[in-house]
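Can't attach files on this board, so I'm pasting raw text. These are the components:
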Amino acid sequence: MTERERILRRQAEWQKSRQAVPWPEKIRQAERMRASIEAFRRMRTAHQPPVAPVLPHGEPTAKD
Amino acid sequence: MSAAPLPGAGDPATIRTVKEVAELLNGMCVAGVIKDYALFGAAAQMRYTEAVATLDADVLVATATPGGLDPLAAIHAYGRDRGYAAEGEAMRVGAWPVQFIPVFSPLTEEAVDCAETADFEGVPFRVVGAVYLAVIALSVGRAKDFARVLGLMESGAATHADIGALAARHGLSDAWNRFVGRFLDDRA
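---
Top answer:
Structure tokens for the assembled complex are below.
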């Protein structure tokens, strides 16, 4: 077995083991993932440049 | 590699929250606000697969007054009376925005009728079964729904034959055949 195959097999075994975790624990994991996603979204929003105003006929004044 | 819990595992706040969702829904049934309910979507999928990212909890509801102008009005009034705030179309229960979706087809109606009663750390929680989850996802047909079907099949919770049979019963054979051709048929 090559090193790559060994890594893939370990990854598959790890994924299976995550599947066997009790449902309430998976819900907890999902909640932590969601907290991370929301934190990333807040960071992205905070770092976004101000949106260019839109002219009356609907054409934006600048491209993103 | 072991399946050691992630840091922060065992946080009692989450369990309280999800138990609260189950208790709220069970209470609505007892009060006659809804006839029945079943959790579906990603939160239900996680009974069978590894944890997946999701922003809310989706609940299919069979309302007491199907076909009314606002089938969710009684649900939101029930929640409001108990201090649960509306958040857009959802209701915030602890950390979870809960989306109530009235049954919208014979398939979703049957999914609620045939839902399983899971035990969520001591609280009964009605949950859509794996095959129904897969066929509902197939009927919606976005990329993440296809990933859900594949995840459920890979976990062994829903078989090719069972999904095909349920899809056929609900007029979704074409969608299923396209899915098989696209994702499962090595000859394609």
